[in-house]
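Problem: given the chain below (451 residues), write out its structure.
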Amino acid sequence: MTAASASVTFGPDVPDADRVRLAYPLDADVCVIGAGLAGLSVALEAARLGASVVVLEGRHVGWNASGNQLGTVMPGYGLPLADLIARVGLEDAREMWALSQQGAEAVRERATGDGIADLALSDGALEVSNVDVGERLIARLQMLNEDFDTEAEGWQIERVRDALKTRRYFHGVHYPKAFQIDGRNYLMGLAALAKQAGVRIFEDTPALSLDAAGIMKRVVTPAAKLRAQHVVLAGNVHLGSPAQRLSDTLLPVWRYGGITEPLGERLEAIAFQGSVSDSDGVDHFRIVEGDRLMWSSPETTWATQPARFARNITSRIRTVFPQLGKLDVTETFGGAVGQTVHGMPQIGQIRPGLWVASGFGYQGLNTTAMAGVLIARGMIQRDDRSKLFAPFELVWAGGRVGRVVGYGVGVWHRQASALQCTLARYRERAVERERRREARIAAANARAGTG
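Solution.
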């Protein structure tokens, strides 16, 4: 399906009557707590390796950020590549980057040949800079292409502005092998594949307590108890009492987005059909359904109704593309992602039989697919590649104080980004004025010489 016919849906997905709650004692090889991207990826891979798998979900499949995202799939992590190298060294960084590429390819395989329909796949992702960073761009491209086997193209200012009719952006990095899918349909398709593989998913079944001692771990739910050889904590910031210490290592950041009304010919302002994100992480957008704009921008460290941000999203769109004029955001969505202090996901075994798959931030589609493979093979085949993530230990995120500080840092970051962007455009206009002045002087001198 082409981008022009893409259909994206948000909101409640499964009626109460269709949900199954755990109401009887149960034993399994693997118990996954959390039915988001991470939990379902682990469950699917473990079931395909022959394990009996149960997933416990306190609400319903895809109720949080996993079911409310823009659907961009590309390699990488939340931690900048240079920082990753500084932390683990070049060789381990290469291996971890290759794993993230494999995660992206796993999503593509599911999207194209694994029985998930209506994903509206479209190719290409463009990361644009808010300031003129030509030299840094060249260095980054060399590192991606030569050291990390990633196809990436550098776009000069003229090409970026030909694709995006705005003067807010300068250089860009184009990832032609990145792609977009309907994120909610992918998540629900992942749940369907897991069920086909034999996974039992119990919704409206929160884990109230967890005893991880002994060979068989014990999980207590409101109506029944469950025992499993392996327990995977994949509930992000909402794990609560069974794993409060884990939840406390994550800073909850609610990201909100919306979809505009059909914009028709006005969307000629955006000629790029893939997803676009700025290098400061402020705006992320793409065209859906041919002439509607899906845009994600505002962030908070507390939960609120996504509809409250419709005007904020409209304001951001008109700030970047004023030529779009007056427009309405007709659908809004949002969810909480768990941000780790170090910016990397938490993947691996905490203690024998107790695993964690959490803290994926904004790179959730590729990294959760990767984590599913690593953890499933670690549990069943004793694959130890998840140890690559051991340097990124569980670090307390500061509790309520951390949320306040995180929000303040986010506000400061966005304000600093806006100031740098303003200064960059001012310098660009100053250079243009100087060039015109020199051109006028040169023309005057030429006329004087011929006179």
